[in-house]
Amino acid sequence: QVQLVESGGGVVQAGDSLRLSCAASGFTFDDYAIGWFRQAPGKERELVASITRIGSTNYADSVKGRFTISRDNAKNTVYLQMNSLKPEDTAVYYCYCNGYWGQGTQVTVSS
After folding, report:
1. Is the pLDDT of residue 29 over 90?
2. Which phi and psi angles does 31 have, rounded to 5°?
3. What is the pLDDT of residue 75?
4. Is the pLDDT score of 54 beyond 90?
5. How far apart are CA 20 and CA 22, in angstroms?
6. 77 contact partners, CB below 8 Å, separation of at least 6
7. Maximum CA pair distance of the chain?
8. Which of 62, 78, 94, 109 has its CA 20 to 30 A from that of 7?
């Protein structure tokens, strides 16, 4: 069955970095684009970044220049490197692919 498992979240201070990982299984990873979304309390879930099969990337304006999405097809894993974190980046971060969601990983950035 399809599984997306996120990891790497935590509690950090403003300006710190985190790297999130999303390990995929149960489908042909190479065939699909992958997205990272986030949802803050009281807000709608929003797209943070996405990467196509061939590595083309797209970012929300709010994270451009700070976040980098990448994928390792050999490991069936997609990453989100988050630098210069801000309190407004606090949210649950979800991995999404082909109609499936991971369980999410909490990122908390303190000021």
Report:
1. no
2. -85, -5
3. 95
4. yes
5. 7
6. 21, 22, 23, 24, 71
7. 40
8. 62
